[in-house]
Write a structure and sequence with these properties.
alpha/beta, Rossmann fold, Helicase, Ruva Protein, domain 3, Zinc Finger, Delta Prime, domain 3, 3 domains, five-stranded parallel beta sheet, two-stranded parallel ribbon, 16 helices, globular
Length: about 375
């Protein structure tokens, strides 16, 4: 299995494989690796030579047929397949006919893997005319198709970056933008809470544009002056304060958000989304879902999934249902113009506090 560095070196040297698999929870890295491949492989045809489809729209045989089609505006072809179902872990059911279904599924999987393996064996000489790229949040390494790709193509795991690996990514991104970043500025960003690469990339590009051509260093002062704020992190803090019954601290956090000129409606809808995710997390925990599957089940960043699990311990499903009902009533008041969004936020915090307090004393 290639490392990121070995992959980049190989692609820049013009050494291409007919099939790639980029998998893992960090979608940004998958897109970044695909972009580098597209630039190196397609060159000036990168705008017309790419096609992106969902994995369930074509089976393996149809994908290979699509690869063989000639393009109208590009001599080379890059076909990107998002979340192919034939690479993910199989869904378990209690169906009585499952043995027959398993045999049918096994037969299809063998047929798919044989088709792809034969295609790859025929594509080993020279630079391929077409390249197949799979993107997947999760894969089952036991699947025949995964083993075929890993053996005959390139499979790279794209997990979330943490600690020094994330710091190195930030420095590398800044370097590509033609700037330098001081270590304290990196630490300031890492402490912000939202460590999504999409988010960090947008922040760094904003800092670079602000500095212009002459100024080269991103400092702590740059980050403090331009940091857009981690509203999702602040909503977590709000929820933490509410879970602790500390309504005063919750009001202080809300006041900070409003003074930072965050839009009251955005804060409100982030609160609604947050408590919906908390309820979903609570239900998943009650159902005994393995911790490793929360990211895909909730469709959130791993950092967010971990925080939701930590907070959900302080709640129960019935309290969260009552909170969402209170949020729904307040939403209706906002939409009908009966209350201003900024006042609605203060009101909903007091209502959430009341719901939680009533549950604690058994009202």
């Amino acid at each position: 299995m290639l490392s990121f560095q070995a992959y980049i070196k190989k692609v820049k040297q013009g050494n291409f494989d007919p099939v790639y698999l980029f998998y893992g929870e960090e979608k940004y890295l998958q897109e970044e690796l695909t972009h580098q491949l597209a630039v190196a492989f397609l060159g000036q045809d990168s705008e017309f030579g790419q096609e992106k489809i969902t994995g369930d729209s074509l089976d393996v045989e149809e994908l290979l047929a699509r690869l063989g089609e000639s393009g109208l505006f590009a001599r080379r072809r890059l076909l990107i397949v998002d979340n192919p179902p034939y690479l993910v872990p199989p869904v378990k059911t209690d169906d009585k006919n499952q043995p027959d279904e398993e045999r049918a599924e096994d037969s299809r999987e063998k047929s798919d893997s044989d088709l792809l393996e034969n295609y790859l064996k025929q594509s080993t000489s020279g630079v391929p005319d077409s390249i197949l790229v799979f993107h997947a949040a999760r894969v089952d390494r036991r699947r025949r198709l995964f083993k075929v790709i890993d053996k005959n193509g390139v499979a790279i795991e794209c997990n979330s970056l943490k600690g020094e690996a994330l710091a190195a990514w930030i420095r590398n991104k800044v370097s590509k933008l033609g700037k330098n970043i001081e270590r304290p500025a990196v630490e300031k960003l890492l402490a912000a809470g939202d460590q999504s690469l999409y988010y960090l990339s947008n922040e760094l590009e904003k800092y670079s544009s602000f500095l212009g051509e002459k100024e080269k260093n991103i400092t702590v002062q740059t980050v403090e002056a331009l940091f857009s704020g981690d509203i999702q992190g602040d909503v977590f803090k709000l929820s933490d304060a509410m879970a602790e019954g500390n309504i005063t601290r919750a009001y202080d956090i809300l006041d900070l958000l409003l003074r930072r000129r965050e839009k009251p409606l955005l804060i409100f809808f982030m609160l609604v989304r947050h408590y919906r995710l908390l309820l979903q997390t609570c239900c998943l925990m009650e159902d005994g879902l393995p911790q490793s599957e929360f990211v895909s089940a909730l469709e959130v960043h791993p950092f967010v999934a971990r925080k939701l699990r930590e907070q959900a311990v302080s709640y129960n499903r019935f309290v969260l249902e009552d909170v969402l009902l209170a949020l729904q009533r307040t939403d209706q008041q906002i939409k009908t113009g009966r209350i201003e969004p900024s006042e609605a936020l203060k009101l909903i915090l007091s209502r959430i506090d009341y719901v939680q307090s009533a549950a604690n004393i058994g009202v």
